[in-house]
Design a protein that fits this description.
Blueprint (H helix, E strand, L loop, with lengths): L7 E4 L3 H11 L3 E4 L6 H8 L1 H11 L4 E7 L6 E2 L11 E6 H11 L7 E8 H4 L1 H6 L10 E6 L3 E5 L4 E8 L2 E6 L37 H7 L1 E5 L4 E4 L4 E6 L4 E8 L9 H11 L5 H15 L12 H4 L7 H16 L1
Parallel strand pairs: 1-2, 4-8
Antiparallel strand pairs: 2-12, 3-5, 3-6, 6-7, 7-14, 8-13, 9-12, 9-14, 10-11, 10-13
Helix pairs in contact: 2-3, 3-4
Length: 335
Amino acid sequence: MSHDASLARYNRPDRTVFAQHIRPACKPAVLEGVVADWPAVQLGRTSDEALADYLLSHDSGAQAGVYVAPPQARGTFFYGFDTHVTNFSHGPATVPEVLERLLGERDKADPLAISLQSTPIASQMPGFGAENRLDLLPDVAPRIWIGNAVVTRTHYDLNDNIACVVAGRRRFSLFPPEQLPNLYPGPYERTIGGVPVSMVDIDRPDLSRYPRYAEAQAVRVDIELEAGDALYIPYGWWHQVRSLSPFNVLVNYWWEAAPVPDAAPSEAFLHALLAIRDLPEPERSVWRNLFSHYVFGENGDPVAHLTPRDKGLYGPLDAAMRRRLKRQIVKALQD
């Protein structure tokens, strides 16, 4: 297993350093102390109760989505005996209810696993957002996660992400995007939290069942962060998150680093499953070459030899071309 020394580290980076050095590298990076001055971080260092009171003082009273799993789940939210069931329940609860339950479970040897996940701060506790701001991303809406010692299984996000540890400690386990086949993703339709998760328990891997995971394990990087630190996780990087303390708070920022396209790449992926995956191999090979050449540009500009007038849809797309493409796609799917 790799050590955290393999990750780039930046001490309290500013917006310029992030934009010019961290983000362009497209690799995970530790942002040491970047939120250490937040009032919430300072209160969390005083006591769990002090931070809980602070959160309550900003709470709007709205209900949030909360995951709860029994002690035998060992803090891991996952499937049950097969992928059609889960080992946890999910439902609405208020922040006061969650905090009271968390503090009550804190000293138990076998506590319930409790996690309020991915709650928009703007609607749940706007005052918190105003007093605890990440200067690196002033225009990105934050989300808050509150829980005890729980595990979010290995998954990827189709966004860039900065995860800020407000209270407690967290261990992140990271894998680059190309490790997808070695992580054995779960079903697309029945996910744990919106995207497929790895079926491998990376802390106790069963290599007889998932032998290719050994290749992912060889490049795995683990990093533990303290309150006040943050981790930049680039688009598509696989990561598992383990909370290590009985009371944990994290704030994260998901955003689209690239301009938003006219169509979601995930929709093109689904269309490819429908149109290409089940073709005979010789035909799939033809389309593989076409995608590599015209979509991914693996051979350089595919129409550099043509005049601007002749490049058509294979060249830069103007607004009229984009509208025409959309009409063609809609028509084809309706036929």
